Amino acid sequence: KLGEENMAAIQVLSAGAVRVGLTDLAAEFGNKNNSEVDVTFSTGPEIRERLTADGAGNDDLDLVVAPKALMDDLVAAGCVDASTRSTLGWVKAAVAVKTGAPMPDISSADSLRAAILGAEVIVYNKASSGQYIDQMIAGLGIADDVEAKVQRFPDACIAMTFLGKMESNGGLGFGQSSAIRGYAPLGVTQVGPLPDAVGNVTTYDAAVATATANRETADALLGLLTSEYGLAAFTATGVE
Q: What's the burial of 76, exposed, middle or buried (CB within 10 Å: 0-12/13-18/19+)?
């Protein structure tokens, strides 16, 4: 347990794919150490903007969790301490439907293509994961055919809420597998990961923010996240 002088609130900025595991571990850490852990979940582009924009005020951040490619840039920009960088796990891009809707065949690129063409509405976010779905649909050669049906939302929570509240069963959603699993209470069900031919795996790293004023506590929280116990907690929520 940390000393009394380390009870300041810890500010964590994180990508949403690790939401369930990180939320639980942060709460556990806070309870054990009498230290409030304030976690803000944002998309990759929002994290980049907050930490690298000219004049960005990031001196209040203590820990950052981001996709590997983005973390590379944050290290290069001096926003996080490279020596603390640790991998939490990886997540596959996956498909979701409204709970109770028929499960489409997504076992191959061709069957996924047919499912997308047959969907009434196609739902995903504008974050890094959603940008990949744009590329994937274009790679299947059907971007122009389905663009009128695509609904892009600021983040996964809004996208899955929309899908879960659709009156019909004709919606097809895309997102990170761990996020979809966590949003099951919103009325969505994961069909499965994208087929290997068009699949995408995103690795998520954590690192202490360079400007942290709470280094000891930030290090301790990172230690919990990357411990055998912490990694098992992430695995249980779909972050392999």
A: exposed
State residue 58's pLDDT score: 58
pLDDT of residue 44: 87
Q: Shortest CA distance to 89 belongs to which of 217, 221, 225?
A: 225
Q: Which long-range contacts (CB under 8 A, 24 or more apart) does 211-217 make?
A: 211/58, 211/59, 211/61, 212/61, 212/62, 212/63, 213/8, 213/59, 213/62, 214/6, 214/8, 214/10, 214/62, 216/2, 216/6, 217/2, 217/6, 217/8, 217/10, 217/33, 217/35, 217/62
Could you tell me the mean pLDDT of each successive run of 10 residues in the chain, 240 residues long? 60 92 95 91 89 65 95 94 97 96 96 97 92 96 97 93 96 93 93 95 95 92 97 92
pLDDT at 52: 82
**Helix, strand, coil proportions of the chain in percent (round to 5)?**
45, 25, 30
Give me Rg for the CA atoms of the chain.
Answer: 19
H or E, element range at 206: strand 201-208
Distance spanning both ends of the chain, measured CA to CA: 28
Are 137 and 147 within 8 A, CB to CB? Answer: no
